[in-house]
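Why do we care about 3D structure at all? Because function follows from shape, and shape follows, mostly, from sequence. That is the central idea of this module. The next example makes it concrete: a single protein chain, its amino acid sequence, and then its structure expressed as tokens.
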Amino acid sequence: MTEPCPGACNTAWRTIPPGDPGRPEPVPGEPVWCPRDQARIRRQFAELDILGALRAFIGDGHREQAASPSRGNGHPPSPSPAMDDVDELTRWAFSWKDAYLDLHPSWKAAQTYAGNLAEARTETIAWLCERMDGLLEAPFAADFGREVTWWHRSLTTVTKAGTGRHRKLAPCPWCGLRTLYETDGDDYLACCNPGPPACRARLTKDEYTGWAQQAARAVQPA
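And the structure:
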């Protein structure tokens, strides 16, 4: 049996108790993520190299520290948080390349040192992009997709690249307040009502469109 997609498309299914008439059917994974989330993960992962370059370029004025020792290896931390983030992104990409190679042991002998033609980060992300179909079907596909989303959101926030935040006109269908926001780069809308209790509603863009149309009809005069 196909498991439900772990993305935001199933937020309502995960949060509404079983047996509640308002609980929708889960969106199935194909085989792990639904097609909409697969497209989002592909796009976000492909943008990570550009976001990494932006982080290095408009970081904190310490670009010359790119070769400084990394954190956690017994040396003093780099004075450049921006380059630390870029180094960590590179190590993260390496870790997923290693995880994928573990599924294909015969490929390991043919691997070359990354960084010959471009930044090691760039080459590794490009290598993984070409194997995205396999990554999204691998046993670790759910964790991989979640981490891609985290990195993309983290880097777009710190670089201010496409992180516009827009409040929507229709109220939240859960708490009734006008606290639904759409953030550039995300494929869902989130309620920012802090409560108490905090509302943690999430809607896909299609769900919001349907809800907004329903809400508009409800306020029209008879």
